[in-house]
Write a structure and sequence with these properties.
homodimer, 510 residues, mainly alpha, sodium (chains A, B), sodium transport (chains A, B), potassium transport (chains A, B), Cation/H+ exchanger transmembrane domain-containing protein (chains A, B)
Chain lengths: 510, 510
């Protein structure tokens, strides 16, 4: 089958032998990753991602030896596999389990990082690659800015925003970049952002309404779980169908589902959805890292790049330096700009936190690989050496950052943050794709400021909104939510309370 | 992507437009099926299968109109889709949720129906089709006995056995059938049966041992659920890799996992696995019925069959008659033979139960369609009219039996069984693929004979084994299980007791 196209085609009765071999190997390796990851849980130098990448590398070597140097690949990468089956559950689960209150409290900062960070990074790296292409005569800047904008601009704030930007950038004509184009870019981005978000929220609310009104649990809890899964997936598909960002849509669909829908289902469905979404996401993430490791040894790509080892290393380290610089160029300035708008010292982003945000964003890999392959495969059969060098350099950068950075990040965070250690820090290293979002939540210093205990604003609402914008907006949102939304769509307080919200007990009321 | 090959190929950015449209339509229809199925839950004339088939028919009409009569298909059927993604979860869940005690108590009867029933049915239908092919000059008997053996022999006892037989029959040379061939067939069947079962049990025990020894729940409940899912799927893949029956393997893997593994995981993992397996199976089943309905209007198949409406109806009704007769030819004799070996009247299969077993087996459809497509697609590009007529006749038979039989079965069972109504009867109509197995459990008349309360055999074990073979075997199995198996692999009693076993509280101790 094409989705997991096996490299060697064999004869078959029901299924092709190569497909079965490929799937057996991959499922066996996934089991091994999980067992090893469990055994290394207390180890400071390893985590599930590094285990998966290393196991993938090892099996790549084995396949290379077995096939006598012909191929290291068992599965041919397909962007369908990634964008239809692996990415949606990861992003949906991220939305479903995100700490909603802290996410929305820091929403302005996140947007700031997302939009301006990506733009700054994009400009710097476009500049840098144009210099490389002049010096090395290797990279064709006219053909690759889209890829670069993603591969490295991706390392910005979160996967969702960069995919939106990737779509936006793709739909623009880059032959003449001027102020108008920049405005056009901004408009495209804003349009995509708001329509995608609205679609996700609408689908989530529809699922909550349907489940609340029809009360599926009366007959079968399976129907509740099935409706939640199917509607989440449907929101992603609809967004892709309307040329919106499926990633953003399913992310917000996850948020709305955990806020409303999740409270309308029976208790066993709550436990089931909470854990099964997390499990599916976990399997998908491990699968991607395993694949990246195995794919790194694909000699076809290395051969067709025609570059010497020296050139590869030189290009890779230059790109790596650009990533470091590109990230530094926006993380520190934007963090300081954001600090200017914060009234209280406790909510400012300290330098050590800025450092962690800068560092943690370097570790991402899976989405980068997928997007660069997508760009690569779009060039069709014309496998130019430039494109192959791009891919191999990307693989080097991603492998290096996953393995080296991944294993020292725990230590670094402890060394930098230990005097101010909070539980959220150790969480942050687990899920790299939301690293930055979570790190931002660290700045939420004043624990006493809980939504429920917050003193009601007595004075002018407008004045409060200006002085404490996020807290006040949160207060009014809660009033609106309790008065209009929850009676219609359900949610906590409108169904019997159950402990163990998917986002944790403390954050459930935002 | 090929797994869900869209009929119309469009240009794409990330994903092909036609794939997105196809998936959106299918996921939307699945949601509609679930909602409508829920609303019709109290309706006696409809169930989820008939809803799905009818919805599929309607959308087939819509697609036919939109495409101006070009095609009614959105997705091209792929046996990979069916055998890799839809069938394994259905069968695994059947094993996971089966009432183990009653299943094994009636194991001999089930095997009797499975093996001899299939053989009788196969012979009768081979004979019947050879008569058709002489009279109509349409069907080529030399090329189609394999298909017939499955399409109608399938309607026997359970899907697993018939797929084993399908594999067995395929590997034999049918040019000269004699006693040696029959022995060869029996040997192949027994070999496949025992090796597949052993592989499934081994995988299940391995998962139980790994989870019990390493205690995954200590760090993450997600790892437990992931390991259970992956190892179940791995068992299926390994069986296919070794040319065994993946269906039988994953069925027994499910049984072992619910008996041992399920008790070794944390409580939230228990709830999660129980419900998520059921949900995935439910979605897969609905998907198949939806597809069958939509596919029935595929005009390419109807065109290439070149048969007049009269011929189609004639062939279909002849085949249907053969199915009825073939089933009757083994259900009633075998049930009476089985009755001869039963000592107590209460455990005999009454005539009314025999009638239900005969009737219920006629309703199956999904596996039949899949196997006939598989046979059809194996003939490659040579789409002969004979094959097309085969397919269209199969579709007519399956549609008719699903819609007509499906909607009157509830009434029939009530009319026949009402004086002796038991809760299990209404259950039986829900999951057609295990219909027969479950109906057999009805004969387990003596409720007082619970494994725990059973009086210990005082006399000669051998005499007891002869007089009450199943009860005695069960007693010794429980002794062996408690002494050797559970201490190693876990299971109820060796971990804290939790109510709500996947198979229901009463059947958990077998």
């Amino acid at each position: 089958m094409a989705i997991l196209d096996a490299a060697v085609q064999g004869s078959s009765s029901f299924l092709s032998t190569s497909t079965i071999i490929a799937l057996s190997v991959f499922f066996g390796l996934l089991c091994a990753c999980i067992v090893i990851g469990h055994l290394l849980e207390e180890n400071r130098w390893a985590n599930e991602s590094t285990t998966a990448v290393l196991l993938g590398l090892c099996s790549g070597v084995v396949v290379l030896l077995v096939s006598k140097g012909q191929s290291s690949q068992i599965l041919v990468f397909s962007e369908d596999l990634f964008f239809l089956y692996l990415l949606p559950p990861i992003i949906f689960n991220a939305g479903f389990q995100v700490k909603k209150k802290q996410f929305f409290k820091n929403f302005s900062t996140i947007l700031l990082f997302g939009v301006f960070g990506t733009i700054i990074s994009f400009c710097l790296i476009s500049l840098g690659t144009s210099i490389i292409s002049v010096q090395n005569m290797v990279l064709n800047q006219d053909e690759t800015p889209f890829l670069y904008s993603v591969v490295f601009g991706e390392g910005v704030v979160n996967d969702a925003t960069s995919i939106v930007l990737f779509n936006a950038v793709q739909s623009l004509d880059f032959s003449n970049i001027d102020a108008l184009t920049a405005l056009q870019l901004l408009w495209t981005f804003l349009y995509l952002f708001f329509t995608s978000t609205a679609l996700g929220i609408a689908t989530g609310l529809l699922s909550a309404f349907v489940i609340k009104t029809l009360y599926f649990g009366r007959h079968s809890t399976d129907r509740e779980v099935a409706i939640m899964m199917l509607m989440a997936y449907l929101s992603y598909m609809l967004a892709e169908l309307l040329n919106l960002s499926g990633i953003l849509t399913i992310f917000f669909c996850g948020i709305v589902m955990s806020h409303y829908t999740w409270h309308n289902v029976t208790e066993s469905s709550r436990v089931t959805t909470k854990h099964s979404f997390a499990t599916i996401s976990f399997i998908a993430e491990t699968f991607i890292f395993l694949y990246v490791g195995m794919d790194a040894l694909d000699i076809d790509k290395w051969k067709s790049s025609k570059a010497s080892a020296g050139t590869s290393v030189a290009v890779s380290s230059t790109l790596f330096g650009l990533v470091l610089a590109g990230r530094a160029a926006f993380v520190f300035p934007i963090a300081n700009i954001a600090n200017c708008f914060k009234k209280r010292d406790s909510s400012k982003i300290e330098f050590r936190k800025q450092f962690i945000i800068w560092w943690a964003g370097l570790m991402r890999g899976a989405v980068t690989i997928a997007l660069s392959y997508n760009q690569f495969s779009k060039s069709g059969t014309s496998t130019t050496p430039e494109y192959s060098l791009m891919i191999t350099s990307t693989i080097i950068v991603v492998l290096f950052s996953t393995l080296v950075f991944g294993s020292i990040t725990k230590h670094l965070i402890e060394a930098v943050m230990l005097p101010h250690a909070k539980p959220a820090i150790s969480d942050a290293t687990d899920n790299q794709s939301l690293e930055d979002l979570r790190l931002l939540f660290l700045e939420n210093g004043d624990e006493g400021d809980d939504g429920d205990n917050q003193p009601a604003p007595k004075g002018s609402s407008l004045r409060l909104l200006i002085r404490y914008p996020t807290s006040t907006a949160h207060y009014f949102w809660r009033k609106f939510d309790d008065k209009y939304m929850r009676p219609v769509f359900g949610g906590r307080g409108f169904v019997p309370f159950v402990p163990g919200s998917p986002t944790g007990a403390a954050d459930d009321n935002s």
